[in-house]
Write a structure and sequence with these properties.
Layout: E1 16-19, H1 21-24, H2 53-58, H3 60-66, E2 70-73, E3 77-79, E4 87-93, H4 100-112, E5 116-121, H5 131-139, E6 165-166, E7 169-173, H6 180-197, E8 201-204, H7 212-225, E9 230-233, E10 250-251, H8 254-265, H9 271-285, E11 293-295, H10 304-307, H11 312-324, E12 328-332, H12 360-375, H13 377-381, E13 383-390, E14 393-400, E15 403-410, E16 415-421, E17 428-432, E18 438-442, E19 445-451, E20 455-461
Parallel strand pairs: 1-2, 1-12, 2-5, 5-8, 8-9, 9-10, 11-12
Antiparallel strand pairs: 3-4, 6-7, 13-14, 14-15, 15-20, 16-19, 17-18, 17-20, 18-19
Helix pairs in contact: 6-7, 8-9, 8-11, 11-12
Length: 464
């Protein structure tokens, strides 16, 4: 990997929270579209619930209490859909979300609360309401923007589309990145929001559909304005492609998500498998591993509790892996409270703000693990060392100088009398931050009289 790819220092210390603005909180009913539905109505691809930027701003104390120090929002620019991946104006905040002044206030509030904020760059395609595409539809061959798109023929027809789209969706015409005018427009948009708002980076939507040369120029533009801006790619299958030093700082770590879910949720991997694939992935990332964006759920996946078959213990194990692993963890809004939801659109339900409906076990574990991560440099920048794989049980150690955390994960049946090797450790007690239970380390081993089925431990040395 190219040594020039050095991610911003702040990323390894970040605990991200992903927000789908239309469903997080309705802070200003005055900007709701006329067709808005009551908060909590079961979602469909077309429904609107009224979430907005004011709702995020209003709940900054909630995020701070949870321990969040970085926010990633899905697109917020003018668009027709609830998800906003169909941009109609790249230089305007969607009116149902707010305006430029409100976005500036949101970024300032995030910074005042010790949080970073990154936005979503949708530069492969726009929406069919995009002004340039509308001009082509209206004027055909007379439009000066006909070469902004990949057209098969004119006039434009949408059913079926006679132009290149994203995924075959007629309302998502693909932008012609080979056109220098299109490139300049998009790069100007990337620069504009960085300069105007002081936001902290970009998440790149479907970046593999766009030529690498564009992303190389995009990186130069972004880093010239904000050298510490974080550029993270949506990448499901080929993470190393984006980590050569000339495009991105990190990727959404979907491969690691697959390993976590196969081990903790689906029981499709045993401990040896999880250890092997995790360590191999870390070796591939090398020194860039701490800058990857780790996740167990997003707006494009079923929610973690649903993947776990509504089994809270298994969901807790997945969060244990996420929040103690190498890389910056990201929590999808509501997952910390045990929200359920199948794949899109069900995973985009309205945030549940009624605390009596929260899963207290999951929430308590997530809060403790976030606090643990933020308190221990070993979990943010430390080495990763496997200690034990035994009949489904996996133990590993994170360490940096004198700081150590030992993690034990058991997605299967209870185990008795486990002895976990602790090379270089002296005698002493260890405490599990999740349960408060204490365990004895003696002669280079940690003795666990019993490890319950589907139990995880996050152990720190006591009084040392």
């Amino acid at each position: 990997m190219n040594a020039m790819n050095t991610a911003p220092d702040w990323v390894q210390d970040a605990v991200f929270y992903q927000i789908f603005p239309e469903r997080f909180a309705n802070g200003d009913p005055g900007n709701d579209p006329a067709w808005v539905l009551p908060w909590g109505t079961p979602p469909t691809p077309q429904t609107f619930m009224g979430g907005d930027l004011q709702g995020i701003l209003d709940h900054m104390p909630y995020l701070r209490e949870l321990g969040i120090n970085a926010i990633y929002t899905t697109p917020i620019f003018a668009a027709r859909s609830n998800h906003k991946y169909d941009t109609t104006n790249y230089f305007k905040v969607d009116p149902t979300f707010g305006d430029l002044d409100l976005l500036k206030r949101l970024v300032r509030a995030a910074h005042d609360n010790g949080m970073r904020i990154i936005l979503d760059a949708v530069f492969n395609h726009c929406g069919d309401g995009f002004w340039a595409f509308q001009d082509v539809m209206a004027r055909g061959s007379a439009s000066q923007y006909r070469d902004w798109f990949v057209l098969d023929d004119l006039p434009v027809t949408q059913d079926p589309p006679n132009y290149q789209t994203c995924g075959g969706a007629g309302f998502l015409p693909k932008l012609n990145i080979a056109n220098p005018e299109v490139c300049r427009y998009l790069l100007d948009a990337a620069a504009y929001w960085l300069k105007e708002t002081g936001m902290d980076g970009w998440r790149l939507d479907v970046p593999w559909k766009v030529p690498l040369d564009f992303w190389r120029e995009f990186r130069q533009v972004v880093k010239s304005i904000r050298p510490d801006a974080y550029i993270v790619a949506e990448s499901w299958r080929d993470p190393l492609y984006w980590l050569q030093g000339d495009t991105c700082d990190g990727v959404m770590n979907y491969p690691y998500r697959d390993y976590i879910l196969d081990y903790c949720a689906r029981d499709a991997m045993d401990a040896e498998d999880f250890d092997h694939f995790t360590r191999r992935l870390l070796a591939d990332y090398g020194p860039l591993a701490p800058a990857q964006l780790n996740l167990v759920g997003s707006h494009d996946t079923a929610r973690i509790l649903t993947v776990c078959g509504e089994n809270s213990a298994r969901a807790g194990l997945a969060f244990l892996c996420l929040l103690t692993g190498v890389g910056a963890p990201m929590i999808y809004y509501g997952d910390e409270n045990g929200m359920s939801g199948a794949n899109d659109p069900d995973c985009r339900r309205c945030m549940e703000w009624d605390a009596t409906k929260w899963n207290r076990g999951i929430r308590g574990a997530v809060q403790k693990l976030i606090a643990l991560r933020r308190a221990h440099p070993a979990l943010r920048a430390g080495s990763y060392e496997s200690l034990l794989t035994f009949n489904g049980v996996y133990a590993f150690r994170r360490w940096l100088d004198a700081d150590r955390v030992v993690v034990v994960i058991n997605p299967r049946n209870a185990q008795k009398g486990l002895r976990i090797p602790l090379p270089g450790e002296g005698d002493g007690e260890w405490v599990d931050v999740l349960s408060g239970r204490r365990f004895t380390g003696r002669a280079g081993q940690l003795v666990l009289p019993i490890l319950e089925a589907q139990q995880g431990l996050a152990l720190i040395p006591l009084n040392r």
